Amino acid sequence: MANLIDLSKVPVPDIIETLSFEQLYEKNKQMLIDIEPSYANALQFDSDPQAKQLQMLTYREMHLIAKINQATRANILASAFGKDLEALAANYNIERLVIPPENPATNPVTPAVLESDTALKRRVQLAFDGLNTAGSVDGYIFHTLGANGQVLDADAYSPAPCEIVIVVLAHTETGLPTDDLIIKIRNYFGLTDDGTAQLKTPSKVRPQGDRVAVQSAEIIHYAVEAVLNIMPGPDKQVVLAAAKQALTNYQLEQRKLGASITLSGVYKALHQSGVSDVNIIQPATSVNIEAYQAAYCTSVNIRAGA
């Protein structure tokens, strides 16, 4: 797996100003008094017309600072989102992928599902690895993630010199890629549908000396069953709903290659406000996942204790 900077931990740049009307107003008032001391008495009263004008100008200055802050954030990968992020990605010749395209045959029309901001940011972070012509692991990950919108995650490893194995996790219910997706990725790397030979047109992303194999991730199934002891007072259904949602969020965070489902992670998700104790029945131990594997939850049974 590529070791990327955690964008959520990137500090806010110094150029981003903290907005405070009171501080800005006092600063502007003092500047005005320095220029014309005779205004000092009038500016003591917020209802004075001169004070009102200064307040209006201060609000306009705050609005301008806010726009500058917003524009700055829009040009920083860690804080950009939506169309601003797409514009940043275009600097690296990367565009947002379509996972399933729009389906006009349904009624109503099924809209397209687009690549998330988080996934797009990851590909932008890997962009320079894609320029590597030596066939680096991160380079293969970058190209696989961009090969098709159905790719949820990818990894690569080399079991022997000049041999590369690409592992693919898909945007399917279990994460298992379809045969069609595997074929498309093989073709993307200049291989025939069965992956045993090269296409006549050379690959633009695979070093010619590399023998590449594309395979599905191994999906490890698990189930979650737990009993929650809920304190007197809170509504049991509200507490259960919060615990189930937290568990779902944890599972979504771990929906990637090499991400284990740990008992501590399940405990943390289920131990919400109002829960006094958590008794996990399944899984009995942490579900340890290797780099070529991904976890898939087959069922969830969370209930309140007697």
TrEMBL record:
InterPro entries: Baseplate_assembly_J_pred, Baseplate_J-like_C, Phage_Baseplate_Hub
Coiled coil region boundaries: none
Occurrences of domain Baseplate J-like C-terminal (ranges): 222-302
One Pfam family from the record: Baseplate_J_C
Secretion signal, residue range per the UniProt entry: none
Protein name as annotated: Baseplate assembly protein
Lineage: Bacteria, Pseudomonadati, Pseudomonadota, Gammaproteobacteria, Alteromonadales
